[in-house]
User: Fold this.
Amino acid sequence: MKYVVLIGDGMADEPLEEIGGMTVLQKANTSNMDYIASHGRAGLGQTVPEGLAPGSDVANMSIVGYDPKKYYSGRAPLEAASMGVELEKDDVAFRCNLITIKDDLITDYSSGHITNEEAEEIIKTIDAKLGDERFSFYPGISYRHLLVAKNKLGANTECVPPHDVIDENRYDHMPKGEDSEAISELIERSMEILADHPVNNRRIDEGKNPGNSIWLWGQGFAPAFTPFEELYGLRGAIISAVDLVKGIGLYAGLDVIEVPGATGYLDTNYLGKAEYAIDALKDHDFVFVHVEAPDEAGHMGDMEAKIQAIEDFDEKVVGTVLKAAREMDEDVTIMVLPDHPTPIALRTHTSVPIPVAIYCTSEENVDNADAFDEESVKKGSLGTVYAADLVRMMIDRTWTK
Assistant:
């Protein structure tokens, strides 16, 4: 048996008046996910345990088979692993966003999805001017970067994700509590440094949002994972354009497969991810495929973009994998799900249970669910499942009972 998990980040949503009270998942053409739901087993998955924030870190950790209540130590350490930044025992890793602040309002959590090249130039400037024996900055992808603080500095500081406070005053959401003065000072000084940075001047001239401030959040120490192969007895791989998800894979001992043209945005190489996943099944038992695009559209509050991202995911990723799986000599079990909702109206994550469907090529278990969406899956036979148990369910085939 081979296993494939297909994750459409943030696909789940809430009903919208603009589309007749449907969700974007109900509105989108998702014939392949609908097939999996109606010919396999469907239900709801609780990816975010009570007491934890509904981030992609916690949710994807659950889906990969690691209970966040046991393994979670923060978002940024996962990203550090993907970036090749080794953390010492007392190092605290922070996510360092490049954001746009205008008139003290946080107007863009991504600086207009700034390019890698532009962002690298900015982060290198920040490190040269703010880096010292306490702080080191590392360039990542687009707006997503890393700060490492020494000697546990900032470990207990209260920080807020910028995508949760769009169009709100920055002073209402600056770091609070222990070590907050030192962390806030970095943000304040970054604004002074970046106010007249050549990259930002060019972006403004081109009508683009500048990366005129850093924003620090998601901090934590390096976690300790039990290897996936030790936990489940299978060799696995993971495909994603997002450092966070790749970091989960690295800590889990999964092979991280890089796909050309995978951007973590709406222009990502959907088809390439599916093709690389199919190829990976030749020498792996388990492959996770993560697509960020629906989540990005949700954060932007762009309904049409999110519908398009979901349809692209369904056609180019789910459809391609489903077709190839049916043609394989070995049986293949496919699971499809989002990691969490990213509602258009809220432009941030929620911890509401998400739709999940599991299908095996050797079995046609026609379920009561007739489509893959937030409401239809409630008619399925899985009920509500704790997402950290899904990998074990797939392997032990308890989902078929």
In short: Residues 303-327 form the longest helix (25 residues). The longest strand covers residues 92-102. The chain has 14 helices and 14 strands.
